[in-house]
Amino acid sequence: MTGEILAVGDMHLGRRPARLPPGLGLDPEKLTPVAAWERVVELALERGCAALLLAGDVVESENAWFEAYGPLERGVRRLVEAGIEVCAVAGNHDGVALPRLARSLEGFRLLGEGGRWEVHALRSPEVAGLRVAGWSFPSRSYREDPLEDFPALEADTGPVVGLLHCDLGAGASSYAPVQRSRLEALPVAAWLLGHLHQPTLGAGVRPVGYLGSLVGLDPTETGTHGAWSVVPDASGSVRAEMMALAPLRWERLTVDAGMLGASGEALEEAVVAALEQAADEAAADGPDLRALGCRVSLIGRSPAWRSLAERVAEGRWEDLFLERRGISVFVDAIDSRVAPALDLEALAEGNDPLALLAREVLEVERAGPELPELCRELRETYRQALRQAGVTAVGLDAPGEEDLRQALLRAGEQALGALSDQKPGSAE
Questions:
Q1: Is 130:161 a contact under the CB 8 Å cutoff?
Q2: Bridge partner list, 210
Q3: Residue 7 backbone dihedrals phi, psi, to 5 degrees
Q4: Which of 279, 225, 227 lies closest to 247 in space, CA to CA?
Q5: What mean pLDDT value characterizes the chain?
Q6: 44: burial class by Cβ within 10 Å (0-12, 13-18, 19+)?
Q7: Which of 14, 117, 253, 368 is the most buried (most CB within 10 A)?
Q8: What is the rounded CA–CA span in Å between residue 158 and residue 22?
Q9: Which letter does DSSP use for residue 147 in this model?
Q10: Are 218 and 115 in contact (CB under 8 A)?
């Protein structure tokens, strides 16, 4: 057995990834969190890890109890028989389901049940008395800062790793709001967090951040996902490193319309080239990837901006599949953000509507003094629309200033293109 620990963020056993196309040619069950969990178990056994830590939302919901029980029981049993400890905390999704499962699974240790901190010393001598401080959601929501009751830690008894499901950096939240400064002020060697699905932990000494979801469950969960190798050293420090294990990955790609020719004739070939490059880069992370879903955006400027938008809208992109380095690659969505190839400075001269709009677009492009106030108004309008629609999804907030600036630029430039096309003698 080694001194290595594996740590896994939100698994959501019982949930299946969204938006898999029917023509993918792969068994969807091989791309689920259950399939990734089975790979985690195999890896822990192969590497002789001392322990496996789970940072909450192990189960999708109480309704997924039956789907989660079998895979979880098989995996935990194999790990425990090999002498590998399994410790977990409950998150907001499984605050009810995980304690029930834990009572049914021999060797599965749930830390901090009922919202009370618990410090557990791992048994393996290979981890030099490493302790895990864990806190579990007592219900589906928790509005207080769980660090208010963090226990005093005995000195000189080995390093401590914090295992917590929380809303990091939130001022007010239904999901255990915690400030990063408070985590860093505690005598804890690393904070392994669950809740948000995009990994932010980072490598290096004294890591603090989200482990991320084990598998990207929808196209917004882009990039590398998997488990983390956590290794304490003799000095009491802890290092963490991401290990790509997810069988399914999502990416956002861009294709520059300026490289497609004056009439945009090379569109399809450019999209295929972008998909191939994405597969090559993803394959370099490890051998476990089976499917790669891509959202493609056309960007830049082109005199063929209008016809490119039409071809993007009318193309049968859902039928485009590639096999590259053992990875099935598909297009989840494609959109055109291409702007007309216009000389904004020249158009801005004069007093006609075209010139007035060109000056407004230049103001946005240069991030002039009026932009922050405009973005503030747009964000507030966005939030009001969410409230009126009753939308309260975790992590869903108004776009940032740069995203709004880019959206305003696209809208303004396309409006300029439409107005310019109406001038006598104009043509695409």
A1: yes
A2: 193
A3: -125, 135
A4: 225
A5: 89
A6: buried
A7: 14
A8: 52
A9: G
A10: no
- H-helix or E-strand spanning residue 294: strand 291-299
For residues 83 and 356, the model is more confident at 83
Place of tokens 């303004």: 412
Calculate the alpha carbon distances from 284 to 20, 183, 291 in Å: 23, 34, 14
Distance CA 132, CA 162 (A): 6
315 forms bridges with which residues in the sheet? none
Written as six digits, the tokens of 209 are 């951040």
Region at 173 (left for phi over 0; alpha for psi -120 to 50; beta for the rest): beta
Q: Which has the closest alpha carbon to 105: 128, 75, 126?
A: 75
Taking the C-alpha atoms of residue 268 and residue 369, their distance in angstroms, rounded to an integer, is: 40
Enter the tokens of residue 150: 């963090």
Cβ neighbours of residue 12 under 8 Å, at least 6 residues apart?
Answer: 33, 57, 58, 59, 60, 93, 213, 217
In this structure, the strands spanning 177-178 and 190-194 are unpaired
Position 292: which residue type?
L
**pLDDT tens digits along 90-136:** 999 999 899 999 999 999 999 999 999 999 999 988 887 899 999 99
Amino acid letter at 220?
Answer: T
Phi then psi for 333, rounded to 5 degrees? -160, 155
CA gyration radius for the chain? 25
Handedness of CA 196, 37, 227, 276 (dihedral sign): negative
Q: Exposed, middle or buried, 232 (CB in 10 Å: 0-12/13-18/19+)?
A: buried
pLDDT at 234: 79
Phi, psi values for residue 86, rounded to 5°: -125, 115
Contact present, 178 and 149 (Cβ < 8 Å): no
User: pTM higher than 0.85, yes or no?
Assistant: yes
- Contact indicator for 71, 59 with CB cutoff of 8 Å: no
